[in-house]
């Protein structure tokens, strides 16, 4: 009888041990989805071997994650888009070789990087701040490969034009700027301007329904996201919405809107442009505009892909970036040998 009771107790303890994490997960999913999202990013960073660090520069703090050390291949600095954060690159980092030195930084004011004023949120202002970050971690001791998507692509382009000696090659993913055809987002923007910006900004959702609409706008691939996760994403972003509005107004202003186009003629490093053919935010015709202004520009257009290239086609994006880096490095090696 005592042995039977021990077995019952053992099963009870085992069941309780299993039930606690399951109940904790269910409680987080149903009651605190925003907490679950943060844990998810923490777990994914840990799984991929990324470490989070801070760089302080005269009272200004940058938050970034990194993996690997400088080696034979150029280091890669990745700049995210509007209202995103460094962890948006995790899906791409997953498909990049572990020996590469990769750095993903929170853009000025975003996530763990210091918030200051609108001067730092213009495309030119962000480029200056990113240069400050690069110098603070001594990344520019050797020329590196710069990657930027959307707003981060604009910043990357301006950076390469202003600090050409620091960049060995560059990838721009659907950067905002001049394009030949209007998109769904262009129509939204016109409505916003006509309303004197009293309407909600599609890229700053305040409800789960608006969050779902934003995903539909930015992504050609239709992701089935549970309502609780949508609510969690809204909860994570909501405290920062005033800041996002400030940045949005700055980057669509005259000073920033055409900053990339105004600097393209100054870019001398090899350039790769990646774009989703079904982009509803910035039309894919923008790739041809850039290619026309930058001689030798490589253009990779992705089928069945919208504006969220990094989220929709992470494996393909990683492969294209790596191919371009190796191609340019081999070309430089060949030039050195021939000379």
UniProtKB/TrEMBL annotation:
<keyword id="KW-0496">Mitochondrion</keyword>
<dbReference type="GO" id="GO:0047372">
    <property type="term" value="F:monoacylglycerol lipase activity"/>
</dbReference>
<comment type="function">
    <text>Lipase that preferentially hydrolysis medium-chain saturated monoacylglycerols including 2-arachidonoylglycerol. Through 2-arachidonoylglycerol degradation may regulate endocannabinoid signaling pathways. Also has a lysophosphatidyl lipase activity with a preference for lysophosphatidylglycerol among other lysophospholipids. Also able to degrade bis(monoacylglycero)phosphate (BMP) and constitutes the major enzyme for BMP catabolism.</text>
</comment>
<keyword id="KW-0472">Membrane</keyword>
<dbReference type="GO" id="GO:0046464">
    <property type="term" value="P:acylglycerol catabolic process"/>
</dbReference>
<keyword id="KW-0458">Lysosome</keyword>
<comment type="similarity">
    <text>Belongs to the AB hydrolase superfamily.</text>
</comment>
<dbReference type="GO" id="GO:0031966">
    <property type="term" value="C:mitochondrial membrane"/>
</dbReference>
<keyword id="KW-0812">Transmembrane</keyword>
<dbReference type="GO" id="GO:0032281">
    <property type="term" value="C:AMPA glutamate receptor complex"/>
</dbReference>
<keyword id="KW-0735">Signal-anchor</keyword>
<keyword id="KW-0443">Lipid metabolism</keyword>
<keyword id="KW-1133">Transmembrane helix</keyword>
<dbReference type="InterPro" id="IPR000073">
    <property type="entry name" value="AB_hydrolase_1"/>
</dbReference>
<dbReference type="InterPro" id="IPR029058">
    <property type="entry name" value="AB_hydrolase_fold"/>
</dbReference>
<feature type="transmembrane region" description="Helical">
    <location>
        <begin position="12"/>
        <end position="37"/>
    </location>
</feature>
<keyword id="KW-0967">Endosome</keyword>
<dbReference type="Pfam" id="PF00561">
    <property type="entry name" value="Abhydrolase_1"/>
</dbReference>
<protein>
    <recommendedName>
        <fullName>acylglycerol lipase</fullName>
        <ecNumber>3.1.1.23</ecNumber>
    </recommendedName>
</protein>
<dbReference type="InterPro" id="IPR050266">
    <property type="entry name" value="AB_hydrolase_sf"/>
</dbReference>
<dbReference type="GO" id="GO:0031902">
    <property type="term" value="C:late endosome membrane"/>
</dbReference>
<keyword id="KW-0378">Hydrolase</keyword>
<feature type="domain" description="AB hydrolase-1">
    <location>
        <begin position="74"/>
        <end position="314"/>
    </location>
</feature>
<dbReference type="GO" id="GO:0005765">
    <property type="term" value="C:lysosomal membrane"/>
</dbReference>
């Amino acid at each position: 009888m005592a042995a039977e009771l021990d077995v019952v107790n053992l099963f009870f303890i085992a069941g309780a041990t299993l039930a606690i994490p399951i109940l904790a997960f269910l409680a987080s999913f149903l009651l605190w989805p925003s907490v679950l999202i943060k844990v998810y990013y923490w777990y994914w960073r840990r799984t991929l071997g990324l470490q989070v660090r801070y760089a302080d520069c005269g009272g200004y703090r940058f938050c970034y994650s990194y993996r690997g050390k400088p080696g034979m291949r150029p280091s890669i600095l990745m700049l995210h888009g509007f209202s995103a954060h460094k962890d948006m690159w995790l899906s791409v980092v997953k498909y990049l070789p572990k020996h590469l030195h990769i750095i993903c930084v929170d853009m000025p004011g975003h996530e763990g990087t210091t918030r200051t004023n609108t001067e730092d949120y213009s495309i030119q202002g962000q480029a200056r701040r990113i240069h400050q970050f690069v110098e603070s971690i001594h990344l520019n001791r050797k020329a590196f490969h710069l990657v930027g998507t959307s707003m981060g692509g604009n910043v990357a382009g301006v950076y390469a034009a202003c600090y050409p000696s620091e960049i060995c090659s560059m990838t721009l993913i659907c950067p905002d700027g001049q394009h030949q055809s209007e998109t769904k987002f262009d129509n939204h923007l016109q409505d916003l301007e006509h309303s004197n910006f009293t309407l909600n900004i599609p890229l700053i959702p305040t409800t789960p329904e608006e969050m779902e609409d934003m995903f539909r706008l930015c992504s050609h691939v239709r992701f089935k996201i549970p309502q609780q996760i949508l609510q969690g994403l809204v909860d994570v972003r909501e405290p920062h919405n005033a800041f996002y509005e400030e940045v949005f107004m700055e980057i669509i202003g005259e000073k920033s809107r055409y900053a990339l186009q105004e600097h393209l003629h100054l870019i001398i490093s090899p350039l790769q442009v990646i774009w989703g053919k079904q982009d509803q935010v910035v039309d894919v015709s923008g790739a041809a505009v850039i290619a026309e202004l930058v001689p030798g520009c490589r253009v990779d257009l992705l089928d069945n892909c919208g504006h969220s290239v990094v989220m929709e086609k992470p494996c393909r994006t990683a492969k294209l970036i790596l191919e371009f880096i190796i191609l340019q490095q081999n070309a430089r090696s060949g030039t050195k040998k021939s000379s």
